[in-house]
Design goal:
The structure is a single chain. The protein is 28% helix and 21% strand. The strands form 3 sheets. It has a 7-stranded mixed sheet with strand order 6-5-4-3-2-1-16. Strands 7-8-11-12-13-14-15 form a 7-stranded mixed sheet, covered by helices on one side. Strands 9-10 form a two-stranded antiparallel sheet. The protein has helices spanning 3-30, 103-113, 121-130, 205-214, 231-241, 262-271, 290-293, and strands at 43-47, 53-56, 62-65, 90-92, 116-118, 135-136, 147-150, 153-159, 165-167, 175-177, 182-187, 193-196, 218-222, 245-249, 276-277, 285-288. It is globular and about 70 Å long. It has 7 helices and 16 strands. It has one domain (38-297): 4-Layer Sandwich (Metallo-beta-lactamase, Chain A).
């Protein structure tokens, strides 16, 4: 074999090898990862507008996440009233921005329900300094990467790529550093895992840590742009996470944000057919169970 023929054979073998690896990569990306089983029982997810959510566990525990209530234009009116929630067992805060953590709302919720409070380390201490009676779980779950069982719910604090100051008197008031932004994964007794990304940009952790390791069945993602990732980035996040159900949030609240989830839903259908985008209306409860997560197995 002369040198020219050898080079052609060598090039062809390398090319076929690269093509094979690329095909395997595509197959891996398109095939949904194996998820943990989900047992009996319903978990209820209710969007309260913007980044605020109410979760009700299989045994009736009520968890609020980033409850921005009094001045949230999309919060259902019943939740703005005193005693609007039947009870609140746990409150999770992702960061200190005024559209997620409002001190007056926090004081009212603590006074009415005395919930267990979970937040990033510095924000937790800030809450305790402003509301001394707050039941802050500072030494139970206090920073990114940690997990703890609280009232039968496995809660993991995850990374989020976002800033995190507290605006103590609204948008025109002084800004105070209260720690970094986070997301959360909630693991319920029936095995269901829900990932709430918090305010975040698209990031590699969504695949390598949250997707590959924690494997959430449901992912709740911001899509509004300007302050967080937009629809295109969020749709790509769905490819990384591979959750069967994805729920958009953090849009339509202010004129500068994306006003609908139409683009996101379309992109998810095109780019990540293994995921189903479910668009909620504020105050509309969504019941999630094993039938919804694994419909083909029922």
């Amino acid at each position: 074999m002369n040198i020219m023929s050898w080079c052609k054979v060598r090039f062809l073998s390398v090319f076929l090898g690269v093509l094979f690896l690329f095909s395997c990569s595509l197959m891996h990306e398109c095939n949904a990862r194996e998820l943990d089983k989900v047992g009996d029982g319903d978990v209820i997810v209710e969007w309260l507008g913007h980044g605020s959510f109410l979760f009700i566990s299989t045994d009736g525990k009520r968890i609020l996440l980033d409850p921005w209530l009094s001045t949230n234009p999309r919060c259902p009116g019943k939740y703005r009233k005193k005693g609007g929630f039947e009870k609140v067992d746990i409150i999770l805060w992702t960061h200190g921005h005024v559209d997620h953590f409002m001190l007056d709302d926090a004081k009212a919720l603590v006074e009415q329900y005395n919930p267990k409070i979970i937040a990033p380390w510095e924000l937790n201490f800030f809450i305790k300094s402003e509301i001394p009676e707050a039941n802050c779980q500072i030494f139970t779950l206090g920073n990114k990467g940690s997990s703890a069982e609280v009232d039968g719910i496995q809660i993991t604090m995850t990374e989020a790529s976002h800033s995190a100051g507290a605006q103590l008197t609204g948008f025109e008031g002084k800004n105070r550093f209260v720690g970094e932004a986070v997301g959360y994964i909630l693991g319920f007794k029936n095995g269901l895992k829900i990932y709430h990304a918090g305010d975040t940009a698209l990031m590699g952790d969504m695949k390598t840590i949250i997707g590959d390791f924690y494997k959430p069945h449901v992912s709740i993602l911001p899509i509004g742009g300007v302050f967080t990732m937009g629809s295109e980035e969020a749709a790509h996040a769905c490819k990384l996470l591979q959750s069967p159900i994805v729920i958009p949030e953090h849009y339509g609240t202010f004129p500068v944000l994306e006003q609908t989830a139409d683009k996101f839903s379309q992109l998810v259908g095109e780019k990540c057919p293994g995921s189903k985008a479910i668009v909620l209306e504020p105050g509309q409860p969504l019941v999630i169970n094993q039938t919804m997560i694994f419909p083909a197995q029922q």
